[in-house]
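Many introductory courses stop at the sequence. We go one step further.
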Amino acid sequence: MQKWFRSGDALADANCDAALDGRLRLGFSEDRLAVCASHARLKHPGVETPLRQALDFSGPIRNLKAFALDCAYRGRGGAFADQAMADVLHDIWERESYAPTLVISRIDRRNVASEKFAARNDFSLIDDLPQPDQLRNWFTVLEEDEEAAEVPPN
């Protein structure tokens, strides 16, 4: 993942995804780059995928292609990372005009820390590919939070 960002492939990938509303998000803290994330619409949203069928979901689907946190912010309890993920998920939801949105991401099964992070941020595992070096599919559905939708009294 770090190589993908350092090599410039992240920028090239985001540029290629421009037609798919691709986004490359950079987050700074204390004047240093702290988090990078990339997401775009699924390339073939009309194709009935096993994920779409399993969840009986017909709305927009976005692919969270990458999420990387600077090592200086790891091992601190997760509050910074969780807030960064919340910001990225809000950006995704905003890009889809606040419609219920399925977000998918693939995580290498050997990356236990990323899988725990995904689970902590309301992602669920959709399948378990048994071979080594395989990526596993994780998903979450962004929907309106009833409490957030309430209008505060005057």
